């Protein structure tokens, strides 16, 4: 069965009409978070201070998913063919792929990055927010091993409040990112990530308290293959408390092979993310009888919903093409992406995750949908200029 994570490049946009401001988070702040020494401010930070930007509380954004250590390398077409990989795809590792993880390390120059779709997204959101630290929370399962220690260290460095369920049965999960040109083929060996247990982690009082603190929730569709009951518990909490619950389609195989699990969660989804290939597969599986991405977004937006206080928003990226946003019946907007020279694209691995991270960083600050999309495009643009889902020390988002 397929799986993996990061999504295709969604580059960067600015947007046109001004949508209505969407209220998301209560005004809360932690004074102690602001007592840090003065640092040289970026344009982004200067603009925020000029406009008296509201301060965020810690743990306002919650993510839960599959933490994986990315093993990234530029490979050749022969390597892809040997393991039956497509140039721009994401799958779960099967038996035939096991030797691939050793071969990629021996044959090519590899880089290691903390990864996993949801973890990438909350990491980017925290980077965009900068301060306070630990606005983003992350839950997932790792092994008690060297790779698990690396993931814990990386989470700390990115100022994400990661609370891992650590177990000894399986090693920390890995994902091979096979880069060819500006395409990437992802093969995820979930291992420990597949061992997340609701009763042993999410249900614990000290962990559930972090869920209760959150205002915005995000889960990649990949986690549907691991713990549907955990997703539903969080989704129901969001609906009952009129909080924002967002989900990503993540990969065509999720829409196809995990359709039943996906549709159990869909009634709780306030914001649905996806790219054009996932949208097409979703439409096919749902019998929408259209290949038009704007129509697909409208039909997905109109699916039944538990929390009637919020209209569902659907956001579909299309790589270098415009991003589609549906926010009500007959209300579809297209946001053009910023242009980038092909020569400046290092790889598109993590670009989709980065788009969502940028989007959520503004969403949790009560920004307009236009500003959310613009931030998403900015974040994705930064990520495709770097190897893997990595970025400079500070953003320079206007």
> How many strands, which pairing sense, and closed or not: the largest β-sheet?
9 strands, mixed
Number of helices: 14
Strand order, largest beta sheet? 7-6-2-10-11-12-13-14-15
Order of helices and strands: EHEEHEHEHEHEEEHHEHEHHEHHEEEEHH
- Beta-strand percent range: 15-25%
Shape field: globular
Helix content class: 25-40%
Report the count of strand segments: 16
End-to-end Cα distance, whole Å, is: 42 Å
Rounded mean pLDDT is: 86
Low-pLDDT sequence parts: 1-39, 46-52
Supply Rg. 19 Å
Structural class: alpha/beta
Architecture overview:
The protein is globular. The protein has a 9-stranded mixed β-sheet with strand order 7-6-2-10-11-12-13-14-15, sandwiched between helices. It has a 5-stranded mixed β-sheet with strand order 4-9-8-3-5. The chain has helices at residues 43-50, 77-82, 98-107, 117-129, 146-157, 198-202, 205-213, 228-240, 252-257, 259-265, 276-286, 293-301, 351-363, 369-383, and strands at residues 12-13, 61-64, 68-74, 89-92, 110-115, 136-143, 161-167, 173-180, 183-189, 216-220, 244-248, 271-275, 313-318, 321-328, 331-335, 337-338. The chain is α/β, with parallel strands linked by helices. It contains 14 helices and 16 strands. Helices cover 34% and strands 22% of the residues. Helix 4 (117-129) packs across helix 13 (351-363), helix 11 (276-286) crosses helix 12 (293-301) and helix 13 runs antiparallel to helix 14 (369-383). The protein starts with 11 loop residues before the first strand and ends in a 15-residue tail after the last helix. Helix 5 (146-157) links the parallel strand 6 (136-143) and strand 7 (161-167).
């Amino acid at each position: 069965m397929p799986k993996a994570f990061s999504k295709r490049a969604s580059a960067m946009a600015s947007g046109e009409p001004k949508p209505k401001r969407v209220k998301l988070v209560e005004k809360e702040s932690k004074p102690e978070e602001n007592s840090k020494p003065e640092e040289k401010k970026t344009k982004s930070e200067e603009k925020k201070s000029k406009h008296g930007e509201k301060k965020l509380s810690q743990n306002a954004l919650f993510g839960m998913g599959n933490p994986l250590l990315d093993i990234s390398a530029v490979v050749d077409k022969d390597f892809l063919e040997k393991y039956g990989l497509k140039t721009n795809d994401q799958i779960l590792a099967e038996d035939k792929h096991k030797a691939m993880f050793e071969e990629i390390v021996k044959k090519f120059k590899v880089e290691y990055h903390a990864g996993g779709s949801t973890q990438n997204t909350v990491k980017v959101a925290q980077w965009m927010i900068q301060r306070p630290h630990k606005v983003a929370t992350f839950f997932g399962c790792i092994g008690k091993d060297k790779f698990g220690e690396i993931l814990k260290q990386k989470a700390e460095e990115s100022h994400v409040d990661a609370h891992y369920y650590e177990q000894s049965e399986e090693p920390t999960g890995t994902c091979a990112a096979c880069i060819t040109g500006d395409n990437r083929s992802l093969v995820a060996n979930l291992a420990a990530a597949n061992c997340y247990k609701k009763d042993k982690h999410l249900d614990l009082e000290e962990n559930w308290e972090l869920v209760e603190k959150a205002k915005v929730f995000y889960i990649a569709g990949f986690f549907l293959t691991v713990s549907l009951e955990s997703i539903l518990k969080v989704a129901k909490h969001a609906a009952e408390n009129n909080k924002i619950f967002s989900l990503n389609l993540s990969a065509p195989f999720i829409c196809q092979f995990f359709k039943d699990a996906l549709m159990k969660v869909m009634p709780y989804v306030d914001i649905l993310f996806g790219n054009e290939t996932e949208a097409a597969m979703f439409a096919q599986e749902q019998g929408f009888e259209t290949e038009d991405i704007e129509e697909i977004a409208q039909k997905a937006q109109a699916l039944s919903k538990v929390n009637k206080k919020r209209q569902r928003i659907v956001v579909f990226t299309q790589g270098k093409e415009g991003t589609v946003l549906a926010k009500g019946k007959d209300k579809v907007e297209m946001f053009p992406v910023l242009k980038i020279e092909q020569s400046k694209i290092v790889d598109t691995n993590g670009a989709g995750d980065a788009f969502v991270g940028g989007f959520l960083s503004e969403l949790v600050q009560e920004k307009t949908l236009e500003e959310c999309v613009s931030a998403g495009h900015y974040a994705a643009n930064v990520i495709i200029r770097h190897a893997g889902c990595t970025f400079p020390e500070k953003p320079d988002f206007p």
